[in-house]
Amino acid sequence: MSKKERVNTVRGILDELLPEMGYELWNVEYVKSGGDHELIVSIDKEGGIGTDDCEAVSKRLSARLDEMDSIETRYYLIVSSPGLDRPLLTDEHYARYTGSEVDVSLYKGVNGTKKLSGTLVGRTETELILRLADGELRLPRELVSRVRLKVII
What we know:
Elements: H1 3-21, E1 24-33, E2 36-44, H2 51-68, E3 76-80, H3 91-96, E4 101-110, E5 113-123, E6 127-132, E7 135-140, E8 144-149
Parallel strand pairs: 2-3
Antiparallel strand pairs: 1-2, 4-5, 4-8, 5-6, 6-7
């Protein structure tokens, strides 16, 4: 089973489990870390995620994965919150956080930098639109490596 198939299998399980438990799926990753594989699941809910939430989802997901026996390699299951500096990954994430402060990492520098901070104005099929102190900036999406919410203390 390919990495993508593993992730899609887990997403399918979580799409059934999480709504009935009162959670929203943020992201699923299957990564190799050192010599180990990690299945990383990020969940969210109104009011935030605590350790009890992570434990509840971990137990239910682990039982379901064991029952299905669909991931043939040994892995560590990690269930967590996406964090305050959560990555924006889907169109829904971008729509929800339009107007929020974000940190943007770029593959290639623009105006002499690969890191930008600004207010998320929106995202189209081809561009990420930010409001910076000196005006609006439209970045081609293929230049954007990562967008995360800015942690403001």
